Fold:
Amino acid sequence: MVLYAKDIMKNYTKTFPADTNALDGAKIMQQDHVGFLIVHDSGGKPVGIVTEWDYISKVVAAENDPRKVTLGQIMKEGIISVEAETPTEKVTVIMGKNLIRRIPVFENGKLIGVITSRDIIRIFKDYMDSISDIIARFGNF
Structure:
C-alpha cells in the first residue's frame, strides 16, 4: 500500500502576513504547538517559512528585539513543497535532500497541510510494527 502526502500530513493551514512581528509569531507557534510559521504575501499566497532555527539565529542570537523584527525579515523565501498525491517515499527524499524538517502540502495551488519529521517517524514506526506483526505471524522467511 502506497501512502501519499495527504495521508500523513497534519491539517495545519494557517498562514501569516509578512509584517507580523516575531514576538507575535512566537506566541502563535507556542499556542499552536508548531515549530514553524508559513508566511504569505499581500494576496494570501504562501511565500516563505519561519522555523525555530530562524528565531534562534536571526532574533535571539542576533540580539534583535522580537517586537521590531517581522516574519518577512527572518523567513526563508521560497517554499519547498509537495503535492497531496506525492508518495511518502518521494516526500522523504525531498526532505532529506533539502535538509528540511517540515514540508507544506498543496492541492490545486492551495495549502492543505504540513508534513513534519515527526510524521515521517510515526509512519516509519507503523511500518516497522507491521513488519514485526508479519514476522510474528509467519515466522522468518
Notes: The domain at 5-138 is CATH 3.10.580.10 (CBS-domain). The chain has a mean pLDDT of 93. The radius of gyration is 18 Å. Residues 130 and 136 are 10 Å apart (CA to CA).
